[in-house]
Structure formats: C-alpha cells, structure tokens
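Let us begin with a simple case.
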Amino acid sequence: MMVLRAVLAELLGLFLDDVRVASAILIWLFFAGTVLPRLGLPSGVPGLVLFAGLAGILVVSVLGQSEGRRG
C-alpha cells in the first residue's frame, strides 16, 4: 500500500509540481471559458488569446525557475 501511495504521489507531482503555475492555468482557463465568449470577438481570436495566456504563464514559470537556480 505504501508503494502505491508513493507512486500516486509521484504521478501527481509530475502534473502539479508548482501550485502557482497550476493555479494560474486554472484561472486563465476559467477566464477564457467564461469571459472571452461574451466579448463577441471574431472567430479564432479567443483561441489566440487562450494560447497567448497559456504561453505567457509558461514563460513566466520558466524564467522564475531559472532565476531561482541562479540565486
């Protein structure tokens, strides 16, 4: 049972290594799913906004991790 618990904890850690990044992604997805459709943007623009936000979260996360390793 302990081995199974350790394996599950490790798998969960792969996906939720940084709680701030996971939280930012969930907030961005909520925003994109609730606010963007109501803005009446042309077709394709909400997808670009969704992608840009997720890419921005990734960049900030990677830059923050590299800063943490230097200092």
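The second case is a distinct protein. As before, the sequence precedes its structure tokens.
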Amino acid sequence: MSAKSSPKILLVDDDRFYTRLLVRMLAKIGITDVEVAQHGEEALTHILNGAQQGSPEHQLIILDINMPFMTGWELLDKLENLVSFTKNPVPIVMVTTSRNEDDKFKASEHKLVKEFLVKPVSELTLLNMVQSHLKYTG
C-alpha cells in the first residue's frame, strides 16, 4: 500500500462520541476512508457486501466488544464461520473499555484478532497499529 493511498477501515462501535474522535484521529494520520457501523449486525452487512464482490471491502476492522444487537464476540464468531471471509481475512483490532484479562485472553483465542487495545487510545497508538497491520506509512 503506498503512502499516498488511504486504507479503508471499518470502525465498529456504538459510542458515537468515541467513533467521531477516532475518525478525527485517523484523519490526522492520513486515513480518511473510514466507515462506521454502530453494531455487529451493521458491520456484518458491510462485510458481506464486500465478500459478494469477491474481495474484502476493508483493509482493517476496529471492533468494540460491548454493543447492542450483536456484540463484538458474536460478530467474530460469525466471521470465523464465513468461508469467503476466512479465505481473505481482514485484520481485526479490538479496541474496548474492557480491562478484563479474560476478554484479552478470549480475543487472543480468535485467529482473526491481531491486537487488543484498551480505550482511550492515543494518536501514536493508532498510527503504530495501522502501520503494523497495514504497512501504511501515512
């Protein structure tokens, strides 16, 4: 991925204040193509649309745990059972308020989860995460 192109990120979180903050922070580091889903069901629809086109629509998914309708855990379970998604997996970073070691361990058990971060995250943490998982230099 060249430094001139912005990766497309799917941000899945029901906290509207926090999603606005993350979108602004991502824009500061040069990532302007961010799609927001308020819960797992909405995210699953976006992901399935990309799968129907034959390739993932997003290059990274930032996922919260506790959301209405479908939690982050439920979304992960559904994604791990989608052959079209597991053939072309998209890195998932869990960003949550949970400091529970059980949640961190559970996330490490999901092969799609590449990193577990506790909110709030700094701009530097976001940049490092994006660079690590997308080879993005901003």
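The first strand starts at residue 8 and ends at 12. The mean pLDDT is 87.
Keep these points in mind for the review questions at the end of the chapter.
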